[in-house]
Every structure is written in structure tokens, then in C-alpha cells.
């Protein structure tokens, strides 16, 4: 019995020693890593050049040329990200950092070395960079502005409608592509704005319908509309005859018509009969015709779906 206990104690001590040794090794390894990463190292990295403020119609010919090769010196900690990806982006402004020649941009690397240093950051010391001059070929596509057409498919809740129509952030877009393609385009439509049971104001981002081989700038717009509660109203409006010859006397019936309209509740009590004008044009009468076709020629801007119950005004010559 005593012998068995001694064996168990020895095994226990051995296990504890192994654990302590493992912890010691792990701590030593961590200190070693920190020590190594605290040293200075040289590293070659690729700088991917991104161009800002590039005109929409400009297309770079070869993206593989948009690179610089830099040798930097930095602490190991700063170089850790480059273990997985040895490329860093550098942003250049076309209008201020590059000179524009016919069919190519020129970036004088040595004269603008400070831009690269600033974007690398203070953790890196830039030792060298090549090539001395970066040449980026480009081509210029045709471009023009065309109006925007809103495409909607909206189902309003009962008694609700849009007041004052829809508004867009922009009324035209720039299209870019070959001159053959863009010459035939006269407008750009939005994707269908599809909404159901709408009873609140509308504010939606919506894309433009793309065309193969054509780029659109911008790609989308914001649609806004005030949605109000609407109701139907009616007014009795007198009929006016225009273009009647001075030597012609007629009698017509009815002398007034019922004009119906759809209006938001805020403006319902503001509507008066004098806000509408219903006219019959004597010049539109054909031979042996004994009636006029009345037309509403004036109405308030804020009313919708104006109509008349009477479709004809009968008359006789006296």
C-alpha cells in the first residue's frame, strides 16, 4: 500500500514539472518573439497606386502598371501585416500629383516621394522606390448627359396619395461609353420603385437601369414624395363658349357642369368654383354637329384627377 502511494506522488510531481516546464517554454518563446519583432528589418513591398479625381470617361489601359516597388525599414511589429500581403495602397490625386499628357498620365516618383512617405506613416522609413517615373496610359470614352425618367409601381393605402409629385436628387445623369452606343440614348430610367399600401412619406434609394457597354454616373438617386390623405370634392362650374362668331347666336345646355377633383385634406376647404374654367371651342364644331365637347382649361395646381360628369354640351342656333 505504501509503495503505491509513493508511485502516485512521483507521477503527480512529474506532471507538475511538465506543466511548469511547458509554461516556461511558452513564456520564453513569447519573449523571443517580442525581442525579434522589436528589431529593425528591411522589407520590399509593392505600392498599388489608386487614382483619385479621375474623370468618369477616362479608362486606364493597363492596371498592372499602377504599381511601385518600395524598400522600407521598420520594426518587426510594423512589418507583420506584410507577411500575409506585401501590397499597400497609395492614393494619388490626378489633378495635383500627376501631369496629364496626351493618352497618358505621368507621376514623377522622386519629386513626390513625400506623398508616399506620408501615406506609409511614421512607422516606416522609405529607403528607395522605383521606378523613378510612373507612366499610366489611358483612353478617353465619349460622354454626355441625359435626363432621368422615374419608373414607379406604387399602391397607396385607401385615401392616400402623393402631394406635389415625386422629386429626385438629380434630374440628369452622365453616361459614358462608345460614341455609337451613347448617341442613341436619349434618357435613363430608374428601376421600378415598387411599394404597397403606402400611407407615409416616401424616401427611397433607387438604382438606374444599366445598359450593356454603358456606364452611368451616379449609379443611383434618392426618390422623395410627401404622402397626404386625399378626398374627393365637386364644384359646379359655368361653361364658357370661346371663338363664337359675333353674328352667331346660340343657346346651349347645360350652362354649368359638375367638376370632380381629388385634393389633400389640407387644401380641401380652399377650393372654389372660380378656380376652375370649363370651355367649349366653337371652332371645333364640325358640319351639322349640334354639341360641344367641354374641356377643363384651368385648375388649381395641387388638385389631382380632375374630371367632369357631363361629356357634351348640346346647343341650337337661334
From TrEMBL:
Highest rank taxon of the organism: Bacteria
Gene3D superfamilies: 2.170.120.30, YbbR-like domain
Keyword terms, alphabetized: Membrane, Transmembrane, Transmembrane helix
Bilayer-spanning residue ranges: 21-38
PANTHER family: CDAA REGULATORY PROTEIN CDAR
Stated name of the protein: YbbR-like protein
Native organism: Winogradskyella flava
Amino acid at each position: 500500500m505504501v509503495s503505491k502511494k509513493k508511485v502516485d506522488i512521483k507521477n503527480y510531481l512529474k506532471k507538475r514539472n511538465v506543466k511548469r516546464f511547458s509554461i516556461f517554454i511558452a513564456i520564453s518563446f513569447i519573449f523571443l518573439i517580442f525581442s525579434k519583432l522589436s528589431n529593425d528589418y528591411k522589407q520590399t513591398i509593392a505600392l498599388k497606386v489608386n487614382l483619385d479625381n479621375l474623370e468618369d470617361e477616362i479608362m486606364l489601359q493597363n492596371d498592372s502598371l499602377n504599381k511601385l516597388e518600395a524598400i522600407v525599414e521598420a520594426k518587426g511589429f510594423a512589418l507583420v501585416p506584410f507577411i500575409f500581403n506585401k501590397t499597400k495602397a497609395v492614393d494619388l490625386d490626378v489633378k495635383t500629383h500627376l501631369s496629364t499628357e496626351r493618352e497618358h498620365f505621368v507621376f514623377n516618383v522622386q519629386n513626390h516621394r513625400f506623398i508616399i512617405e506620408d501615406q506609409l506613416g511614421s512607422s516606416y522609413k522609405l529607403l528607395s522606390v522605383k521606378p523613378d517615373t510612373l507612366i499610366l496610359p489611358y483612353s478617353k470614352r465619349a460622354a454626355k448627359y441625359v435626363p432621368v425618367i422615374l419608373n414607379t409601381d406604387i399602391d397607396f393605402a385607401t385615401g392616400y396619395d402623393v402631394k406635389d409629385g415625386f422629386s429626385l436628387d438629380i434630374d440628369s445623369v452622365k453616361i459614358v461609353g462608345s460614341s455609337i452606343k451613347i448617341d442613341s440614348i436619349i434618357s435613363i430610367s430608374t428601376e421600378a420603385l415598387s411599394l404597397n399600401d403606402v400611407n407615409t412619406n416616401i424616401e427611397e434609394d433607387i438604382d438606374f437601369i444599366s445598359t450593356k457597354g454603358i456606364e452611368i454616373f451616379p449609379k443611383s438617386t434618392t426618390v422623395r414624395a410627401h404622402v397626404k390623405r386625399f378626398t374627393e370634392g365637386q364644384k359646379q362650374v359655368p361653361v364658357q363658349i370661346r371663338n363664337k362668331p359675333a353674328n352667331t347666336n346660340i343657346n346651349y345646355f347645360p350652362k354649368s357642369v359638375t367638376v370632380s377633383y381629388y385634393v389633400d385634406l389640407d387644401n380641401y376647404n380652399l377650393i372654389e368654383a372660380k378656380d376652375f374654367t370649363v370651355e367649349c371651342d366653337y371652332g371645333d364644331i364640325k358640319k351639322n354637329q349640334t354639341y360641344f365637347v367641354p374641356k377643363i382649361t384651368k385648375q388649381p395646381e395641387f388638385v389631382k384627377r380632375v374630371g367632369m360628369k357631363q361629356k357634351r354640351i348640346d346647343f341650337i342656333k337661334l
